[in-house]
Design a protein that fits this description.
Number of domains: 3
Structural class: alpha+beta
Shape: elongated
Strand order of the largest sheet: 4-3-2-1-5
Largest sheet: 5 strands, antiparallel
CATH class of the largest domain: Alpha Beta
Number of strands: 8
Strand content: 15-25%
Helix content: 40-55%
Length: 278
Amino acid sequence: MDNTNIQEMVTFVDVARLPYAFLAIVVGWAALRLTNRILDDMVERFTDRRLAIKKAKALTRFFLYFVIAILVVSSAFDLENENLWALMGAVGVAIGLAFKDLIGSLIAGVILLMDEPFQVGDRISFGGYYGEVHAMGLRSVRLVTLDDNLVTIPNHKFLSDEVASANAGELDCMVVIPFYIAAAEDFQLARKIVAEATTTSRYLYLNKPVVTLIADEFMGERFVTVIRVKAYVFDARYEKAFATDVTERVKSAFRKNDIRGPDRQYRDLDLNGGRETP
């Protein structure tokens, strides 16, 4: 956009109404802050509706941004002048060319809200990152990883790349925890221990099933038995706490019942001249 267009735009500014435009910005900013604070408080008070409230927060932000923009433009410019509309069209084209990535992200943000491949509060995997969608803005999506890093991803990237959602708008989330034991160990007892540790965890979502699967896999130079438990945590925010709780109790029970892992089995073989410890 050159200086000529800028000067022409200034001639259409209604100076007498500029205070109203400024007031619209101030009121809009205050409304955004107040709305965010109210909805954040509601998230903490009504945890069972956390995802729905966060979705409402994202939609409200988009709506307020749109309303503020309309109020500022209608207050600052003389919209009854036909020449202004022609000029604004030319300026819009110039801005679109100069900020095409930004405009693309703005449009993509609206598409994401309508198409809903994921929502605020979902656990998603994208571009090598995994974490919770903290916010969906006009330009980008903010993702908080399990290491508590804040990752900012432009909206338009989600339109061309694959994204996986672990809970797809639900509060509960599936967690898969693998346990490895030596191939010669009592896999039935090990499976029972894993199932009991999972079903008695305080983080378990009771309305969905707990499944344990057993498979022999080749790892390095040896076969091992893998017991995988698939269960749902009642809130995706406690995904790692759930996995830690189950793992801690399973390992304690394995040690108590002398169920050996692959590493221990092969250490015993080395110490006994190629023979397993009885």
